[in-house]
Design a protein that fits this description.
alpha/beta; Rossmann fold; about 50% helix
Length: about 270
């Protein structure tokens, strides 16, 4: 029994994603959750595919250089321009990733947009944009990658939703944003239920008030008021959200699927 425990402890001290090919969406900005996740995954030995709508050669070079400087070693990264609102774009990006690395082991979907406005002020164009990126986009990229996972009978999906999708808006997002993120929660659970017999896991993270550009629209007073309502009395760091992604992407969570993980500083305890 002692040997078994020792072997397990040794495993947990190793690089959690060594030689795993991980696709991360929405990571073009160095301040994003996607970037923070990419950097941490690289620390743990992952080979990275970074997808983003605004990706170009300059951004790709900047991302690669910054990651390698931060982690102090070379890493295998490819960056692909992809509009997740477009199903064929997603298929093409995943096909290109498989052609380059030979396989894919994990998807972390961080791509998303937010807009804060009252329901009566939301026009059809804004509603469609939020839904197309946050919900349809998540569906598209998951579907594209599930084709690969189903064939190999293995894979992990981590989708980012939001506290707004759990409690119905508030903080920085309007009702259309909350509805889109609520849909991501249900979609992820549906994937988990359908694909579990194929050894494919899917989990969702619901963050709140993470230190990204999404907070830029708040005044200092508004931010102070929000922080006052957080039991930990601060906003979260992208590295802390990345840590939750690492847990769900790795074998540390091997018996976890269909779960919703709160990363919110205690602002929503339920």
């Amino acid at each position: 029994m002692e040997n078994t425990v020792s072997e397990e402890n040794t495993k947990y001290q190793l690089l959690q994603l060594e030689n795993k090919v991980c696709v991360i969406t929405g990571a073009a900005s160095l301040r994003s959750i996607g970037y923070g996740t990419a950097e941490l995954f690289a620390v743990h030995g992952a080979k990275l595919v970074i997808l983003d709508l605004v990706m170009n050669d300059q951004i790709a070079s900047q991302l690669t250089s910054h990651i390698e400087t931060q982690i102090g070693k070379k890493t295998e990264i490819i960056c692909i321009q992809c509009d997740i609102r477009n199903a064929s774009d997603c298929d093409h990006a995943i096909e290109k990733s498989v052609a380059y690395f030979g396989t894919i082991d994990c998807l972390v979907n961080c791509a998303g947009i937010v807009k804060s406005e009252g329901m009566l002020s939301i026009n059809e164009q804004d509603y469609d944009l939020i839904m197309d990126v946050n919900l349809k986009g998540t569906f598209n990229i998951c579907k594209s990658i599930l084709k690969v996972f189903a064939e190999k009978q293995a894979g992990v999906i981590v989708n980012l939703a939001s506290l707004a999708g759990q409690r119905g808006g508030g903080l920085v997002g309007g009702s259309h944003y909350a509805a889109s993120k609520g849909g991501v929660i249900s979609l992820t659970r549906s994937i988990a239920r359908e694909f579990a017999p194929m050894n494919i896991r899917a989990n969702v993270i619901c963050p709140a008030m993470i230190e990204t550009s999404m907070l830029d629209g708040l005044t200092d007073e508004q931010l102070d008021n929000v922080v006052a309502g957080i039991p930990l009395r601060r906003v979260g760091k992208t590295s802390e959200l990345a840590g939750a992604c690492l847990f769900l992407a790795s074998d540390l969570s091997g018996f976890v699927t269909g779960a919703t993980l709160d990363v919110n500083g205690g602002i929503h305890i339920h």
